[in-house]
User: Fold this.
Amino acid sequence: MKIKYTVMMDDLIVFNQFVYAQSASMRKKKIVGSLIGPFIILAIATHDAVKEHSLSVFIFGLILSCCLFFFLRWFFTRQIRTTVKKLHGEHPNKGMLGEHELEIDADGLIEKTEVNETKIKWGGIERIETTLEYTFIFIGAAMAYVIPKSSVLERQYDEFIEAAREMLSNKIPQQTSGADGV
Assistant:
């Protein structure tokens, strides 16, 4: 079974945002990074409010802290988009962007583009994640075949993803036994 699809820059951005959102360490970094600045501002405002007996200084510091918190959350998310565009803009990325063909066979997946042909065995596929608009077939923590649903015929897309999931779930785990089979 084969599907053909096109990967655009926005698809790679969505993938990187997905990976970032799924990563526990990245979520922790975003939360900590978003809290440090606002916490410092709130601490200074609280100190000044107590020192001057001024509720308005505290309220101003609280509002400023909240605004900074939400700005930093937005900024970290926006930074992913900017970074991905810069990284992929530095080189042509002929094998990543453009037309792709992905084929399922008994041993694994075969990906073909204008410039490459790659085969990965089922044992090298970590997982398959699907959103409303994409399927990501992960071959590493931050590496995947990015399949935009919008660029594949719907019936063909659903059948392909179902077949890939079935093949992945039926794969035989690699055994590390000696030469005598023991």
About this structure: Confidence is low (pLDDT under 50) at residues 174-182. The longest strand covers residues 98-104. Residues 13-89 form one domain.
